[in-house]
Amino acid sequence: MPGRGQARTVVDMAGHSVSIPERPGRIADLWFAHNTLTIMLGAVDRIAVTDDLPSARPWMYRVAPALARAVPMAGPVPNAETLLGAGVDVAFVSAGSPAELPLRRIGMPVVDAGFTDAASMIRAVDLTADVLGDARSHDMARLYEATLTEAIRRVRTATAPVAITDRPRILHVKSLAPLTVDGADTIIDDWITIAGGRNAADGIVGVMRPVSMEQVAAWDPDVLILGPDAGTFDDVPQGSAWSALRAVRTGRVYRNPAGVFPWDRYGCEFLLQILWTAQKLYPDRFRDIDMMSETTRFYHMFFGYDLTPAEARRILSALPPEGGQ
């Protein structure tokens, strides 16, 4: 296998000891969400193979145009010959990825960098910086962790006086057709809770779980947050049934922003998601939060990209860049 310097060992998120080059020069990023961490840590130019396609992640390619030089891979199992031909030094995957065993069989170092909640995301950021093996990535990891910690402290301090029983019940809908929601033990549940809400999906564990409209009506959430690509009520069966929900009647239905990655899913824009959600839930407590400014500052600080006001508005509205990537 190609390499950069002497081998060293890292312990990945699954507890595997993986021998990698001292400074991997060419990376296969084979988990959609993880590409955002690599970009944030300043190593987009080292991504040789990616499973994030321009059609699915136009903001990612707008913010990190060097990603266009990477070989795009579609499907859950990458072609091993393609990775070998691309000179890949190490591959990042998520837990349980079907790509893991085939790549290990050909001797490629495979690092499980998957995470499921805020705490494991921080560990994945640190792990990724360790794999990248340079001072810049470690500095950026520390900056991100400090900034995230401060954002969480800021939000929790403002919402601390609100009794648990008075906190709004939020249903996060990943898709309207088929109808799927996100439950406990997820990063979605984390940002709902940190922002001062309660997850309305009682008894649901995990992401993208199918439910019935009758179940949603029984939950009758105070707030509905629709994933950026969830669809609209007008386009789904039983669309009229949504109008009977408390959240719809009171006008508390929000479309989740989406940028380099959907903010509500498993990316570093989790930090922005906390601030955005807190402001939607408690506008009077967070009058000092200007999401245009917060978004622009985050992109400059962590992606090295200066958003125009029009670009920031489109991200906050879950719209793609004008003119594509």
TrEMBL record:
PANTHER family: MOLYBDATE-BINDING PROTEIN MOLA, VITAMIN B12-BINDING PROTEIN. Residues 26-285 form the Fe/B12 periplasmic-binding domain. Pfam families: Peripla_BP_2. It comes from the Bacteria. InterPro entries: ABC_Transporter_SBP, ABC_transptr_periplasmic_BD. This is ABC transporter substrate-binding protein. Signal peptide: none annotated.
